[in-house]
């Protein structure tokens, strides 16, 4: 069974959706360890309450990003991790991690990449005036929210949305697609060619979405 290591920094709702998917037998994987860079992350409590091993690796003790990532990769390898899952882990990874886990690190981002990489992206999407936003699961490379895209889910942006409303709508989709992406990996169904990720046996979507749907041409 695929052994995953989940990296967290905060509330851990994505971690929770992965735990729930495993417990409901929708995801065929086991969580070998949850690692947080933030000792106060609520995600740690979530892991502990499901008897999952946890480690805290604060950034403070390391002078350079590479030194931190070397220690992080050693910790993950020590727990036998085969796939690294970044679930709200707010750090950009450097060479030691990317070399230790080539195309074996996933991240989830609350926007339709390549639009709105970085932080506070729900607010940026609202302010920009996009009609759709969503979330993206992707493999991690050296860029910020940049690697090959595995799954995206789209949500509408409504006229009276607050940042919180939009964030909640996106988060619900995150909780749906992240376990799916991990399951596809665990079934060996993801093939990466350059920037493109193909899903073996995946169905194709061929219809368009329109937002807002205005009645213009009669009907
Ligand atoms: C999620 O919305 C995730 O997409 C985002 O942090 C949140 C973590 O929530 N990650 C990023 O913005 C990474 N660029 P959670 O701790 O409740 O899972």
Q: What is the number of E strands?
A: 9
Spatial strand arrangement across the major sheet? 3-2-1-4-5-6-7
Indicate the percent of residues in helices. Answer: 25-40%
- Would you list the SSEs in sequence order as H and E? EHEHEHEHEHEEHEE
What is the CATH fold-level name of the largest domain? Rossmann fold
Q: Bound small molecules, which ones?
A: glycinamide ribonucleotide
CATH homologous superfamily identity of the largest domain = Formyl transferase, N-terminal domain
Strand portion, in percent? Answer: 15-25%
Largest sheet: 7 strands, mixed
For the termini, the CA-CA separation is 53 Å
Write down the overall geometry. Answer: globular
State the name of the first-level CATH class of the largest domain.
Answer: Alpha Beta
Radius of gyration: 18 Å
Number of helices: 6
Identify low-pLDDT runs.
none
* Helix/strand/pairing category: alpha/beta
- Compute the average pLDDT: 96
Assign the CATH architecture of the largest domain: 3-Layer(aba) Sandwich
What does the model show?
The protein folds into two domains: 1-102, 3-Layer(aba) Sandwich (Rossmann fold), CATH 3.40.50; 107-203, Rossmann fold. It is built from six helices and nine strands, in the order βαβαβαβαβαββαββ. It has helices spanning 13-23, 42-48, 65-78, 95-100, 121-128, 163-186, and strands spanning 2-8, 29-36, 54-56, 83-86, 105-109, 132-139, 149-156, 190-193, 196-199. It has a seven-stranded mixed sheet with strand order 3-2-1-4-5-6-7, covered by helices on one side. A two-stranded antiparallel sheet has the order 8-9. The longest helix is centred in the last third of the chain and has 24 residues, at 163-186. The model has no long low-confidence stretch (mean pLDDT 96). The site of glycinamide ribonucleotide (GAR) has 14 residues, from helix 1, strand 5 and helix 6. Residues 10-14, 43, 87-88, 108-110, 145, 171, 174 line the site of glycinamide ribonucleotide.
């Amino acid at each position: 069974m695929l052994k995953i290591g989940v990296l967290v920094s905060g509330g851990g709702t994505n971690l929770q959706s992965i735990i729930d998917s495993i417990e409901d037998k929708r995801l065929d994987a086991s969580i070998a360890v949850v690692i947080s860079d933030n000792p106060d992350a609520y995600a740690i409590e979530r892991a502990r309450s499901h008897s999952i091993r946890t480690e805290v690796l604060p950034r403070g003790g390391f002078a350079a990003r590479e030194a931190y990532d070397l220690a992080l990769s050693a910790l993950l390898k020590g727990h036998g991790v085969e796939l690294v899952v970044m679930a709200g882990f707010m750090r950009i990874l450097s060479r030691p991690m990317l070399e230790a886990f080539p195309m074996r690190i996933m991240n989830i981002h609350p926007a339709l990449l390549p639009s709105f990489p970085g932080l506070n992206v729900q607010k940026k999407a609202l302010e920009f005036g996009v009609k759709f936003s969503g979330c993206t699961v992707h493999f991690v490379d050296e860029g910020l929210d940049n690697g090959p895209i595995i799954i995206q889910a789209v949500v509408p942006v409504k006229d009276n949305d607050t940042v919180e409303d939009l964030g909640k709508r996106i988060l619900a989709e995150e909780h749906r697609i992240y376990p799916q992406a991990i399951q596809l990996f665990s079934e060996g169904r993801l093939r990466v060619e350059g920037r493109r990720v193909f899903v073996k046996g995946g169905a194709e979507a061929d219809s368009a979405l329109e937002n807002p749907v205005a009645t213009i041409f009669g009907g």
